[in-house]
Request: fold
Amino acid sequence: MDRELTLMVVHAHPDDECLSTGGVLARYTDEGVRTVLVTCTNGEQGDDTGGVKPGEEGHDAARVAERRLAELRESVAHLGIDHLELLGYRDSGMDGWDTNHHPDAFANVPVEVAAARLGELMERYRPQVVITYDETGGGGYGHPDHVQAHRITVAAVEATGIPDKFYYTAIPRAAIKRMFELMRDSGVDLGGFEPSDDFGTPDERVNAVVDVTPYVERKLKALKAHESQGENIFLLRMPDEAQHQAFSHEAFERKLNKVNAPDHEEDLFTGLRP
Ligand SMILES: [Zn+2]
Reply:
């Protein structure tokens, strides 16, 4: 019996689903593919009401988690995602924060324990295509929860053997360069920030670029649903042209391919359709 075409995307926090995978989630849902978003943590270390940062007086981790999970549900509705699965782990915070040492922090959960739970979801949904971050947490980002999401997904893919194709999200260096040029040209004050040469995914590692131009508006709506974190989402404050460029294509590095698909693809389900 043919398996229902299914895409599973594994992310660390509420809001991570939008930028690098919001377009493919919306597009494949529209095309009749079943879509599953797995969010590993509750985002406790995000901003609290009024922009109160973690570690500041008045920051209530439980309240932040509750709000962010509500925002996540709104984002999922904008993108049309069929199934949202929450692993419910505690946000570890950015690399170097004291919260990294919390015994329940996602980054401190043994990989095999969290991977077993993710593996159960893979058994249930049997996705042909799985996406998560690369070993740096996505183009060199380095957030401990993103690195952990990578580790548990690699472990679950290997243990279950279920996906036919497995991808890492990619931010091609050439695209970053173009975006920063565009921002400079349109007079955006970058505060002297320059992306370093090793920021992003080396272009030769990018196998798949998916055009999601028709889904830019929905991605933006999904991102805006994460209102409480708006201060941290600089992409919302970019000029329209740069924003459109950043949102209109999603790139991936393919790590596993059990089907007949070329080295360079424009569709993650190439080789899987009847
Ligand atoms: Zn994140």
Summary: The chain has a mean pLDDT of 93. The pocket of zinc ion is lined by residues 12-13, 16, 143, 146 (CB under 6 Å).
